[in-house]
Amino acid sequence: MSNEIPVIAIDGPTGSGKGTISRALAKMLDWHFLDSGALYRLVALRAMQEDADLEDPRVLAKLASRLDVEFSTAREAEVVCLNGKDVTALLRTEKCGSIASKIAPISMVRAVLLEQQRGFAIPPGLVADGRDMSTVVFPAAILKIFLTASAEVRAKRRYNQLKEKGIDVNLRDLSREIARRDGRDTNRQIAPLKPAGDARVLDSTQLNPEEVVEKIHGWLEELGLRVGMN
Ligand code: DC
Fold first, then answer.
1. Distance between terminal CA atoms of the chain?
2. How many H-runs (helices) and E-runs (strands) does the chain carry?
3. Domain locations in the chain?
4. CA 208, CA 149: separation in Å to the nearest integer?
5. How far is the CA of 141 from the centre of ligand 1 (A)?
6. pLDDT tens digits, residue range 130-177?
7. For residues 135 and 193, what is the distance between their CA atoms, to the nearest angstrom?
8. Which of 9, 74, 105, 124 has its CA 20 to 30 A from that of 194?
9. Which of 7, 18, 35, 36 most suits a substitution to test ligand 1, by most atoms within 8 Å of the C-beta?
10. Residue having the nearest C-alpha atom to atom 4 of ligand 1
11. Could you give the CA distance from residue 160 to residue 145 in angstroms, rounded to a whole number?
């Protein structure tokens, strides 16, 4: 398992900024990065492609166990290929996120993805972003952060992100969809979104990404991890 490999686990709701912050930290530390939501989105995408029954745990678990996926970087941007095809943009759609959230409570799917996620913990270390990184996947993480922000700010951030990617969305519809998704992620029985008992809760409502990274940098120094900020 991943016990000896240092892991920083960052969990939080949609739009909390965990993706941006986790990527910045991984870059700063020169560690690996796991976007665990992408795995749930990949299963969702496969389910859509196969027109699979979203109520059938076995079918979904099978799709999860047979993901032919490759994560890479091209010109500083992440690229995700599924069965040899670039699906980066498809994965980011709200539809995919919403279906991912619907299949995420299925224990057979989570069990398959659990092992895949732990496989990302390789030297020199891993920054992992998701909903249950601290509570389930990497309970021995050296630093556990629960990143949050007001619902209004999170919806606005997500809106800006999608707009930047050229995806047309309506802010009010997006806010509703985010609220539904967070409700599902928080209220499910298995691995719900919640801070681990030993997590540091960080509210980024009033902070920009640089300020959040600076705060975490301070915690890393407290832990004796010397990292340069640039
Ligand atoms: O972080 P994201 O929006 O890409 O995640 C999409 C969905 O996947 C999210 O709504 C719930 C699910 N998910 C999860 O259950 N556990 C994780 N560790 C990551 C994502």
1. 32
2. 9, 8
3. 7-221
4. 11
5. 19
6. 999 999 999 999 999 999 999 999 999 989 988 888 888 899 999 999
7. 9
8. 124
9. 36
10. 37
11. 24
Q: For domain 7-221, which CATH number applies: 2.130.10.10, 3.40.50.2300, 3.40.50.300, 3.40.50.790?
A: 3.40.50.300
- Please write down the HEC assignment for all residues of 21-80: HHHHHHHHHCCEEEEHHHHHHHHHHHHHHHCCCCCCHHHHHHHHHCCCEEEEEECCEEEE
Backbone angles phi, psi at 145, to 5 degrees: -125, 135
Q: Whose CA is nearest to atom 13 of ligand 1?
A: 37
**Distance from residue 131's CA to the centre of ligand 1 (Å):** 6
Q: What is the largest CA-CA distance in the chain?
A: 50
